[in-house]
Design brief:
heterotrimer, A alpha+beta (119), B mainly alpha (128), C mainly alpha (406), A: 119 residues, SH3 type barrels, three-stranded antiparallel sheet, B: Four Helix Bundle (Hemerythrin (Met), subunit A)
Chain lengths: 119, 128, 406
């Protein structure tokens, strides 16, 4: 399987079919004498920024830690064994509400969007 | 790019006279529409005001593009000045609801348009 | 029967989406200054957009991906950033121009300066998105957009010389004001081939759950809808040539001149029809572009997207359209002339086309996405043509803007 082509940048949905992000990065384990093995997929702005270069990666990581605290200083990881299905979307056996991925959306809802009438 | 630059520099006054002629025709159309009851007064007066301002701007452009002593500048600027004055008269007429004043302004505008065309023909047309 | 209804609705929607301040203003300017000679530019633009919209719909129906999803997945995030940023910027300018269009209509109707209308218009558009559903917006814009057919009626009533109309459909060299002629041709092409149109269309297809059974519907909507839209633009040009041009109004650089298109034909109702057409067409376009901004960001980063969700279920998505509308209202609120902004943003749109259209060449020929429904020779030729056109326009449009533009 050509991993970069078939996995990277695909849509990720959680077990309730909620769109939670794209496969922004892959974490592979290098093994002696064997091909590398994927252990996790990464999501989030830090991973994306790292793809642009090491400096943007450091900036965004610093910013994320400032805004979101320690919990957001590292990219969000989903273990490879949680991947259930690879189709148009990649389905993972995770409930996004139990992760930190949507913390910023929750913050937006609680502090801004939810306060506007009619939301 | 050089060709483009060259041909656009060929006639700033030509371009400005065209804008002036087009603006005065706009004023005529608006006056006619207003007189026929086809254009609301606030629209007609806003259009005439904006046309008059455009004409003043054209006059200023011609003044800055040509040396003060040149006779062509004087005549064209005078004609454009008459145009904007006529447009302002028309605006006042529309605001007062005075049909006679508007039709008078329309005649002033026609006369000034003819002056502009004459001045333009005299100084710029033979070149081409 | 249901398909037929869907097709007609789709056609009406695309008419609503096609005609907006850009196509109106560029067609009016071109007609006033060059008579019927620039009709070819509208036809060329319409043919290009038919191909692109059909491909966007086919891609969505077969692969289940929107164009934005496809670009990111196929080319990776770093490459995707370029079309993303270019489209966000172009959309911002065009949306600002559309808000300006509605503001002009309000100014013409009330006499209160257009800059005071920018924020109220943006707020109203926001309210529609905040409370409305996709179907409501799509259908509402579509049905009200039919008022723009008054330009077609006007063009027919003027009894143009059809031989001359046909002659204008063939590209020709200008006999005067060459820079301005080419700049207008560029702006017309930019107004017809709007990236937001085909990107929005692919999002709509995914939002409406299109599958392979919709391929015929898609072809009919793309072909007929865009042709009707093009017909209205051509009508605006004909009316401008025969009304403004014939009266000696050859330079349309003030939005106050625009109602004069219809007043000599319909009298006072012409004024009303013009104001209504401008307001509705631009408002519809502003809604679609605001939604498209949110779609683009949400699809690019994989967030939940969809106009039918309540804002509190989809805070990221709603924030994007809220901020986009607010930002787009600012230039108009500061008094930037909407007509100038419109013409300029159409030229920039044309210049940005290669960034958004090059991916079509790859996506629509990739079996993993479109299977057996790959592009044929003609479609690929059309894409390559648009790309080449975009490159030429990018090289030509900016110098023309500096040297010859209005």
């Amino acid at each position: 399987m050509d991993l970069l082509r078939d996995l990277l940048d695909k849509q990720v949905v959680d077990r309730r079919q909620v769109k939670i992000g794209k496969v922004d990065g892959l974490v592979a384990e290098l093994r002696h004498g064997k091909p590398p093995r994927i252990v996790a997929v990464e999501l989030g702005s830090i991973t994306l920024a790292r793809r642009l270069g090491s400096r943007p990666g450091r900036w965004v990581a610093w910013l994320a830690a400032r805004l979101g605290g320690e919990r957001h200083a590292e990219p969000h990881r989903i273990a490879w064994k949680k991947v259930r299905n690879i189709g148009v979307d990649i389905e993972v056996d995770v409930d996004v509400r139990r992760t930190a991925i949507f913390d910023w959306q929750d913050w937006l809802r609680d502090h801004i969007i939810g306060r506007i009438p009619g939301a | 790019m050089l060709a483009l630059a060259a041909c656009s520099s060929s006639g700033p006054v030509e371009q400005e006279s065209k804008i002036a002629a087009s603006a005065s025709q706009t004023a005529v159309m608006v006056m006619d529409a207003w007189a026929a009851g086809a254009a609301p007064s606030n629209y007609a007066s806003a259009t005439l005001q904006s046309t008059a301002e455009a004409l003043v701007e054209v006059g200023r452009q011609i003044e800055s593009d040509n040396p003060p002593e040149s006779p062509k500048r004087r005549e064209v600027v005078t004609a454009v000045g008459q145009l904007s004055a006529a447009a302002k008269d028309a605006q006042a007429g529309v605001e007062a609801g005075n049909l006679r004043q508007v039709s008078q302004a329309r005649q002033e505008l026609r006369a000034a348009t003819a002056n502009l065309a004459a001045a333009y023909a005299k100084y710029f047309a033979p070149k081409s | 029967m249901k398909k037929l209804l869907e097709i007609s609705l789709g056609i009406v929607t695309s008419v609503g989406g096609f005609l907006e301040v850009g196509s109106m203003a560029t067609a009016a300017q071109a007609g006033a200054t060059f008579g019927l000679r620039l009709i070819w530019a509208i036809l060329l633009g319409t043919i290009c957009i038919i191909f692109l919209v059909e491909m966007a719909g086919r891609f969505a129906a077969v692969s289940g991906h929107t164009i934005a999803d496809g670009i990111r997945e196929r080319f990776g995030f770093n490459t995707f950033l370029w079309p993303l940023l270019a489209t966000l910027l172009v959309n911002f300018m065009v949306m600002s121009a559309e808000i300006g269009g509605v503001a002009i209509a309000a100014d013409l109707a009330t006499g209160i300066g257009f800059q005071w209308w920018a924020i109220p218009v943006a707020f109203l558009a926001w309210l529609f998105l905040w409370k409305g559903t996709f179907g409501f917006i799509e259908k509402g814009v579509a049905v009200l957009g039919l008022v723009t057919l008054c330009f077609v009626v006007a063009a027919v009533m003027l009894k143009p010389d059809w031989k001359q109309v046909a002659a204008g459909a063939v590209p020709s060299l200008p006999d005067h004001d060459a820079e301005s002629y080419w700049f207008m041709a560029v702006s017309i092409l930019g107004a017809s081939i709007s990236p937001y149109l085909f990107m929005f269309y692919s999002s709509g297809a995914v939002e409406d759950h299109w599958d392979k059974t919709y391929l015929g519907t898609n072809r009919a909507i793309a072909g007929l809808g865009m042709s009707f839209g093009g017909t209205i633009s051509v009508s605006v040009l004909i009316v401008a040539a025969l009304v403004l041009g014939e009266h000696g109004v050859n330079q349309v650089d003030d939005y106050h001149q625009l109602p004069l298109l219809l007043i000599p034909i319909f009298g006072f109702w012409g004024f009303v029809l013009f104001v209504a057409s401008l307001a509705i067409a631009c408002f519809g376009a502003a809604l679609e572009i605001a939604l498209q901004q949110a779609y683009l960001v949400a699809q690019g980063f994989g967030w939940t997207w969809g106009e039918d969700r309540k804002p509190r279920e989809d805070p990221g998505f709603c924030s994007v359209y809220t901020i986009s509308l607010l930002l787009a209202a600012i230039p108009i609120g500061l008094g930037l002339d909407p007509l100038k902004l419109t013409i300029f943003s159409m030229a920039v749109t044309a210049a940005s086309l290669p960034l958004t259209v090059v991916p079509f060449l790859f996506l629509l020929n990739d079996e993993r996405y479109v299977g057996d429904h790959r592009n044929g020779m003609i479609s690929n030729a059309a894409v390559i043509f648009v790309i080449a056109l975009g490159f030429v326009l990018a090289v030509v449009a900016i110098p023309l803007q500096i040297f010859g533009g209005s």
